[in-house]
Write a structure and sequence with these properties.
The chain contains six helices and three strands. The model is unreliable at about 120-125 (pLDDT under 50). The protein is globular and about 50 Å long. It has a three-stranded antiparallel β-sheet with strand order 1-3-2. It has one domain: Orthogonal Bundle (Arc Repressor Mutant, subunit A). The protein has helices spanning about 20-25, 30-40, 45-50, 55-70, 90-95, 95-115; strands at about 45, 75-80, 85-90. The chain is mostly helical. The longest helix is centred in the C-terminal third of the chain and has 18 residues, at about 95-115.
Length: about 130
């Protein structure tokens, strides 16, 4: 596995490793989970909050803004009262579907080898 050539004019901290680039974009505690929940459906902000009960409103807002900035999530605002905002994956975001499925499957196998339930004490999701 090689590295990606540094594009002309790239910032000094350019991550030349494709895995590092991927983790920079979707890494962190919440981005992958947000992407996973948006993988097959459009959700409103509060529906995402309910799906992720341990995330704060501030953190969800921040993560959604970053995913939108990186072109993975689309935010659609409807001119209604009260305001209606929906989130879904862009085409670029949908390109992560195989990776998200692989991460899900790997996580289930990892949990199974340790004899714990996802989200229980002793699992990484706890």
């Amino acid at each position: 596995m090689g590295t990606v050539p540094v594009p002309q004019g790239a910032p000094p901290n350019w991550a030349a490793c494709p895995v590092e680039i991927t983790l920079d974009v979707i890494g962190g505690r919440w981005k992958g989970v947000i992407l996973y929940h948006l993988m097959n459906r459009t959700l409103r902000f509060n529906a995402l909050r309910r799906a992720l009960p341990n995330i704060t409103q501030r953190m969800l807002t921040l993560q959604l803004r970053e995913l939108e900035r990186d072109g993975l999530v689309r935010r659609t605002v409807y001119a209604e009262v009260p305001p209606k905002v929906e989130y879904d994956l862009t085409e670029h975001g949908r390109s992560l579907t195989p990776l998200l499925h692989a991460m899900h499957d790997w996580g289930m196998q990892w949990v199974a080898t340790r004899g714990v339930e996802p989200g229980s004490e002793g699992s990484a999701a706890a």
